[in-house]
Amino acid sequence: MFFKRNLSTFAFISLLFLAVFALSGCGSPKSSPETPDNGVHPSGETELTGSITVVGSTSVQPVSDLLAEAFMDEHPGTNIYVQGGGSSAGIRAADDGAAEIGASSRDLKDDEKHLKQYIIAKDGIAVVVHPSSNVSDLTIEQIRDIYAGNITNWSEAGGSNELIIVVTREEGSGTRSAFEEIVMGKDAITGKAIVQNSTGAVVTTVAGDKNAIGYISLASLKENVKALKVEGVEVTRDNIAAGSYKVARPFIYVTKGEPAGLAKSFLDFVLSPDAQGIIEQAGLVSVN
Question: Which tens digits make up the pLDDT trace of 47-84?
Fold first, then answer.
């Protein structure tokens, strides 16, 4: 009886030992290279996470969307939110802290130069008309006179005997500010102009009216409108880079002070050769 009892006790202890050993082998498996648990890639680089917002120019917005998409593809733990609103709105958002990065399609004004700026690309402002228009080339003086209301009929600029429908951007638009600085000088845009609050709205208006004229970013140029030569020079990337096309301006990102964290990583990416290639594919001129 004693022998049987000891044998049973020994068997129980042996089973218990095996159970504990088995459980210890299932406790906490090592992290696989595919699923690191310390926020570090197998390469040793810290994985980026978090979100930032880029707000501003509707001309810069399409390329910002492309850059944000490419960055998020490389860093799946991040979110880059891109919004329009105009250059002035973007600059204010960065200055007020409402956005990490502001986007502008004009140079900074004196009271905005306390912000840190990064020129990410160069862009031409295309002067556009309806594809059916028989006008193909205007001087800067002619464009100024049209927008000032001094030339009101296309026949005065080598076109048909039709009233000119002038389309412009809203106050605060970076494209308008650049256009006013480069083309208008001290002359004001006529109060009879149709005012649109985005690049897309200008394109739609001009594409829908055979007598309309507008101005847009080269990157937003579509086949449903025709770009005019200015002073005999086509609006192309090569001509903008060479300085021969005069109606050109920078695309700028701005931050309040030195950027840090995800904002800095995104800006570093935007200025990298890969991202500048994306910018060129979008029809803009690289800064590299």
Answer: 899 999 999 999 999 999 999 999 999 999 999 999 99
**50-122+250-281 with 124-248: one CATH topology?**
yes
Q: List the one residue out of 90, 134, 97, 113 whose CA is nearest residue 226.
A: 134
Helix (H, G, I), strand (E, B) or coil at 124: strand
Domain boundaries, the chain: 50-122+250-281, 124-248
**Separation CA 228–CA 234 (nearest Å):** 7
Judged by DSSP in three states, 230 sits in: strand
Say yes or no: domain 124-248 is CATH 2.40.10.220.
no
Class at the top of the CATH hierarchy for domain 50-122+250-281: alpha beta
Structure-block tokens of residue 115: 């912000």
Are residues 199 and 58 in contact, defined by beta-carbon separation less than 8 angstroms?
Answer: yes
SS3 content of the chain, % helix, strand, coil (to 5): 40, 25, 40
Instruction: Give the residue from 265, 60, 65 showing the smallest Cα distance to 178.
Output: 60
Euclidean distance between CA atoms 114 and 253, whole angstroms: 13
